Each structure stands twice: as structure tokens, then as C-alpha cells.
Amino acid sequence: MFADASLRHPEHSALISGVLGIPPKGFDKATASYLTPAEVGALIAAAHRSCWSGRRNHALQILAIQTGLRGSELTSLNGSYIGPRTGVHIQCRGKEREERAVPLTHPTALVLKGEPNANGPSIHCSPRARGGA
């Protein structure tokens, strides 16, 4: 485009040659990398399930790996996140207040139902100092 402009407007040749001298972008688009199955297994095995926070971390890790939920979506889950529709799924409010319903596999649903409370299964991400939510 600018090469043709230098022929049409020779009075602006200095400016056009300066524009043509600008190098192209010096970076490539970054590729998204994902965890390998071995890394996923090591991450899940790292949670200490002997205490409440370890069981919570284990459940959140499995949920994040299986569903791909963002951190803000995971931390906003409450006692009523398992939806009433056919099949087990979670309902959450996503980016820009968009409602999302994500289906769960049977093993993930079993982990989430591991510690039910009075309102049904729940994961509370911000426990009190002495445990509980």
C-alpha cells in the first residue's frame, strides 16, 4: 500500500520510506499449554485429604480440571450449585454475569457429594479459622 503511495506522492517519499522501514511485529502468538495426564495425577495426589481444607482442595482441583471453571467461578460456588436438571451438573455465574451449567462426570460428582451439609453438598472456599464455612 505505501510502496504504491511513494510513486503517486513523491513529495512525501521521506515519510513513506520511514513507514516502510518499521519492522513487523517481533513476537508470535503464545500457544496455550495444558497439563499432561501425569501432571494432573500429581496435582490431585498432592492434596492432603486427612484434613477439611485438603478435602476441599482435592474437590476443587478435580472440579477445575474436569470443567475448566475460572477461579472466580470456583470460589463463588455455594450449597446450591448442583442443578436440578437431568444429569449431574453445576450451575455458576461466569464472566460478565453469564449463567453457565457444566455437566459433571460420575467420579467428580461422587467427590463433590462426599461432605454434604444441611442444604445438600457444598464446597465453601473460604473457611473460618477453626474449620467449617
Helix content: 25-40%
What is the rounded Rg? 26 Å
Number of strands: 4
Mean pLDDT over the full residue set: 75
Order of helices and strands: HHHHHEEHEE
Shape: elongated
Task: List the topology elements.
Elements: H1 2-8, H2 13-20, H3 37-45, H4 52-67, H5 71-75, E1 89-93, E2 99-103, H6 106-112, E3 116-117, E4 120-121
Helix pairs in contact: 1-2, 3-4
Task: Give a description of the structure.
With 133 residues, this protein is an alpha+beta fold. It is 39% helix and 11% strand. The chain is built from 6 helices and 4 strands. The chain has helices spanning 2-8, 13-20, 37-45, 52-67, 71-75, 106-112, and strands at 89-93, 99-103, 116-117, 120-121. Strands 1-2 form a two-stranded antiparallel ribbon. A two-stranded antiparallel sheet has the order 3-4. Strand 3 and strand 4 form a beta hairpin. Helix 3 (37-45) packs antiparallel against helix 4 (52-67). The longest helix has 16 residues, at 52-67. It starts with a helix and ends in a 12-residue tail after the last strand. Mean pLDDT is 75; it is low at 117-122.
Features:
two-stranded antiparallel sheet; alpha+beta; two-stranded antiparallel ribbon; 39% helix; single chain; 4 strands
